[in-house]
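Reproducibility note. Readers wishing to regenerate the assembly model reported in the main text can use the exact inputs given here. Chain order matters: entities are listed in the order in which they were concatenated for prediction.
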Amino acid sequence: MKRIYMDHAATTPVRPEVWEAMLPYFSTEFGNPSSVYSWGRSARKALDSARDKVAALLGASASEIVFTSGGSEGANLAIKGVAWADQNKGKHIITSAIEHHAVLDTVLWLETQGFEVTILPVDEYGLVDPAQVEAALRPDTILVSIMHANNEVGTIQPISEIGALVRARGVRFHTDAVQTAGALDLNVDALNVDLLSISAHKFYGPKGVGALYVRKGVRLHPLIHGGGQEKRRRAGTENVAGIVGLAKAFELAQEEREAESARLQKLRDRLIEGLLQIPHTRVNGSLERRLPNNVSVCFEFIEGESLLLNLDLRGIAASSGSACTSGSLDPSHVLLAMGLSHEIAHGSLRLTLGRENTEADVDFVLQEIPGIVERLRAMSPLYQG
Amino acid sequence: MYSDKVMEHFTNPRNVGEIPDADGIGEVGNARCGDIMKMWIKVENNIITDIKFKTFGCGAAIATSSMITELAIGKTVEEAEKITNRDVAEALEGLPPVKMHCSNLAAEALGAAIADYRKRTASTA
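Running the prediction on these inputs yields the following structure tokens for the assembly.
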């Protein structure tokens, strides 16, 4: 059976050029970058070169890059790191209702530790209003964290505008750019951010490695103590092969970004248009401010997991924000924050396109989904023909 | 994640539909938590001669609905009433632990249909 992977927001395959670049650092060049002899120097050189590349791609300096184990660690380090370092200035943190749990749960944990948290609402398209961010700023606000683009519905936030308002008040601004690395320009000055986190496996790099940009002058307490690595901001022997892979993948993604985004956007729009032909279907998020590869819809009267199982039986990999797939009793917090009812949010489907997807894949998906939806509706007590 | 038996019932659910002249109808669950089961039963001489269901829910919700219709058909009302959610899960060769509570509602749905049947027969007697 032909298999079609359309869940690139979850993870992506490692590109052959990337693992080829990584391979020597597992074997011949296995040294510890902190060692003085030739093996160590070779690993150090690879690490430095990776850091230079990542910094250049972000419009930053090498000393502003901290390598991490991925997006969750990046968000944790940015948020807890700033909260702990700046708590003598204030204990108020602002974020939005549609953040990834790596941000949301970190902020909520800090709330149990004596910090105060404001969680801003979003509109029906999943957009944060910069004026609401500004209005929420207080004299004791130390940090604002707003994601660059949402992983479920693909809505792109006005980060640069929010950043200008927040930073003008001397408040630190973090953006979770896990979904946008490789899809949008991540120049940190244009984005007006103090901290920005990315994760390699979302752009055809390996799992288990990420990077956090920390603007010069931003103080950060480490999460992990133990050694002088990453300028004492993240102890532990560096994941050299992973970091080399991240830099290579990021470089390739940036080179191909504009052409690939344009190609994906066409496929995305065809998919959305095709799916909207199915009655009682709505698109989630904004059609204008949307990631080039994100399709998110809700089919009324059916539940997401049974839809995913049927798609899987036909070789199609997708995801849903239904309770069964969100790992809790409630459907996606993102869809609920956008004002969808529980009932409708349970019927959500997310398809996220990637490099290996073709027009033929889109045709196949559009050919299979209507029948599956119809069959599940025929079985649903909510559907009245 | 699901057993072959669950997937088999999920892909080929038995007794989907409605019974227009049902003797009892039961509905449990709610759309908020993502599972609704509705069951129709036909009873002759105290025996369940026909049963149909409609379900909004995940794979486990559909498979358990389908399975209980197979277990209940041909049984007396009293026997059918004794079928538990655990019996349904066992007949399906197990369910993932997370699904045991949220989506394993078929016995409640059948119980509600039988209660409705009893209520109707009591009022006509």
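We highlight two features of this model. Chain A is about 40% helix and 15% strand. Chain A touches chain B through 22 residues (CB under 8 Å).
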